[in-house]
Amino acid sequence: MGRAIAAALAALVLITVVPAEPTRAADDPLRLDVATTYRIDPGKAAVHVILEVTATSLAADTPTQIFFYNAIRFAVQSEARSFKATSGSLDLAVAAEERSGFRAVTITIPDLFYKQSREVRLTFDLPSGKPRSASPIRVGQAHADFVAWAFGGPRRADVRIIVPNRFEADVQTLPAGTPDPITSVAVDGRVQYVADDIRDPTTWYATVNASDRAALTDVPLEFDGERVRIHAWPEDDVWLRRVTRVLEFGLPALETAIGLPWPVTDDLDVSEVTSAEIQGYAGIYDSSDNQIEISEDLDPFVIVHEASHAWFDDELFAERWIAEGLADEYAARIIGARSGASRPAPDAVDPDDKAAFRLNAWPPPSRVDKTTAASESYGYDASWTVMRTIVEEATEARMQEVFKAAASGASPYRGADDGEPSSATPDWRRFLDLVEEIGGSTSASGLIAEWVATPKQRRELETRAEARLDYADLLEAGGTWLPGPVIRRPMTSWQFGDATLAMGAARTVLADRDDLDRAAAALGLAIPADLEITYEAAASSSDLADLDFEIDRWHAATGLLDGAGEALAAERSPLMNLGLFGEDPATGHAAALVAYRVGDLAAVATGAAVTSQLLGTAEEVGRGRAIVIGLLIAALVWLLLVIVTLVSRRRRRERALVLAAPDSGPISGDPYATLAATPDTLEPDAAGSSGAGGAEPD
């Protein structure tokens, strides 16, 4: 409020009895010492104002002129009514004229001459305006809101504000930084707010906001087992009915659209206030005590907007522009769907507007006045503009997944475990990651660079873009193998240097995996499933190094299998076949294949070694066996020769005996005969013998 139009004007009337010369203005010709008292009267719905005035004339007479005052004048609030002025027992005439922004009140007083003083008492009321009326004054059983002015000067101007004991008051002196603040004191058991000796009453004023919450209505509203309590001014049944009706359809609609359950654990209190009580805003949500304060204005959009802050608060996302943009967009969607009319939209704004600023630099809510109104309006419209584009692109369905991930703390960079928690701060960075990774937005980065990020944060976005390209390449290279926490954590916390190093190690692992895959496939085998699980669980660079070593071990095992298989398939010489007689070299290879499938690398090595060793030594073993067989054959041949020789000799002897025996016929009886011991080596004389069958005696 501009006090230039509400200055405490002390108007003097100079009456000259000898106007022979032009009137000369004296310094401080009339001094007005004024003690002003404001008393809130809820029962009368008014603020009673008393001005205790001491008027002193300092206009000295001259030899040709006599100066005196017959009236004093004050500028009071436009809403002032019921004027009464007295001086002692005298009733004084009072006249009030409407001016722009104030009322000029003239009090007629008995003539006041040089150095004379007069006590004047002026009283008037500041009556309460009706809810939603143009009057800025509100006084009821549960609330009071008005502006107190100071009067008088230049020597003395005091102000007292008396508030009912059951009211809690917030009294602020303005302009900000005034050297004459107001303080609270206890007088006769009653709280008063006091400012004494105000230096410049023409610019000083104080805002008074007082309330008695116990006097508000307490109407419960339940939906789906959750309860809201509505607290309205007793005099404003219209507000109570309207807010109740809007919340009855708005809260369930918000829960459905957002996709998160009702987040308030205790009762949610919704209270009616004046706009001044909430610093000039239409509504405020305080998540610390589950309290919504909504001004007396009956705007369904504002009611749903504030209710949406039960979900859209700094626990979901820290930045103000995110919460306000989401609240505006979802309120617009619900109000538009309910009314069947076009969806409410933000006013047109541009990042280059005079009032523009980077949305990440939007300060917390403060008093809305002529110095902050433009920037606050820009902040709301710009936030809504950005959020509308993102939500429309992502769709409500995917935004529900975004909100679920945000509420659960899940990482935007999903791994094998979608529920993996993230320790990242729920700020604009996390919001961007979620709406891109889960919401599928492709425009969010550009919008945030254009409207939201500071110059330093824009450089972060550039670094992030490069890291995300690397991440996308890694995902493509990995196929079903998803990056582990060693990569997702620094990506989520925007530690892109660490993420890049980890992705380099991961690419090495994947390249070795591909080599293993080709080698295993050639053998009709598959990569062990445990390797993928280990990759997706890798939480450190050492985990990736250990995994790469393990892949190398498996690759070595495929080499053993491949070598053994090639040896089995190779053409074999007769000696190898002889060496393998009674052995099946495929048995070890088959056992090694089984061992590979069950993950027993030691058994793979053993089985492959058995096959390789059998095949590798088969020819040497066959050669040895061939020699043995040859020797055996030779021995058998010699034995046969010996046997043939002996048989042949025996047959010759038998023929010789047959030829030498006399032809005397068969022998009868049972003769016994003994041959002479004739050595086998005895050969007949070469020239023959004269005897027949004779033998030399020994």
Short structural description:
With 698 residues, the chain is of the alpha+beta class.
Helix content: 40-55%
Q: How many beta-strand segments?
A: 20
Q: What is the name of the CATH class of the largest domain?
A: Mainly Beta
| Neighbour order of strands in the largest sheet | 5-4-8-2-1-11-14-13
Architecture per CATH nomenclature, i.e. the level-2 architecture of the largest domain: Sandwich
The value of Rg in angstroms is: 56 Å
Structural topology:
Blueprint: E1 30-41, E2 46-57, E3 68-76, E4 81-87, E5 90-92, E6 94-99, E7 102-113, E8 117-127, E9 138-139, E10 143-149, E11 157-162, E12 168-174, E13 183-187, E14 190-195, E15 205-211, E16 219-223, E17 226-231, H1 237-258, E18 268-273, E19 283-286, E20 291-295, H2 300-308, H3 320-339, H4 373-408, H5 428-437, H6 444-452, H7 455-478, H8 485-492, H9 496-522, H10 529-537, H11 541-569, H12 574-579, H13 586-598, H14 601-660
Parallel strand pairs: 1-11, 17-18, 18-20
Antiparallel strand pairs: 1-2, 2-8, 3-7, 4-5, 4-8, 6-7, 9-10, 10-15, 11-14, 12-15, 13-14, 16-17, 19-20
Helix pairs in contact: 1-2, 1-3, 2-3, 3-4, 4-5, 4-6, 7-9, 8-9, 9-11, 11-13, 11-14, 13-14
Could you name the key traits of this structure?
alpha+beta; Immunoglobulin-like; Neutral Protease, domain 2; eight-stranded mixed beta sheet; five-stranded mixed beta sheet; 14 helices; 40% helix; rod-shaped; disordered C terminus
Structure, explained:
With 698 residues, this protein is of the alpha+beta class. The protein has 5 domains: 184 residues, Immunoglobulin-like (Sandwich); 96 residues, Neutral Protease Domain 2 (Neutral Protease, domain 2, Orthogonal Bundle); 141 residues, no CATH class; 107 residues; 59 residues. Helices cover 40% and strands 20% of the residues. The chain is built from 14 helices and 20 strands. The strands form 4 sheets. An 8-stranded mixed sheet has the order 5-4-8-2-1-11-14-13, with no helix packed on it. A 5-stranded mixed sheet has the order 16-17-18-20-19, with helices on one face. Strand 19 and strand 20 form a beta hairpin. The longest helix has 60 residues. The protein is rod-shaped and about 210 Å long. The N terminus and C terminus are likely disordered.
